[in-house]
Amino acid sequence: MLVGYYHIYGRSQDPHCAELINYLNNTGFEYVFTLTDFSPEYEHSITKRCKRDYTPIITSVTIAGEEDIIGGFEEAMEHIKSMTKS
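Below the sequence we write its predicted structure tokens.
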């Protein structure tokens, strides 16, 4: 799967979001960051759709626009590090 970009759903003060964003910036991957700070209802709908208990939630979006759930912070870091090795 060719990743077009990563989509991060999370909170502005979450240290995991900050670490993930810094890592993506340093490795050159594209990403968008959707803040859930101001809509608990939206955050709830994302966690429910992705079957997660909390944010951050990271997905990969293909060039064709298909979005696949990677998981939370640890899964995302593992996934992105494996992509840098390819």
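The two ends are 12 Å apart (CA to CA).
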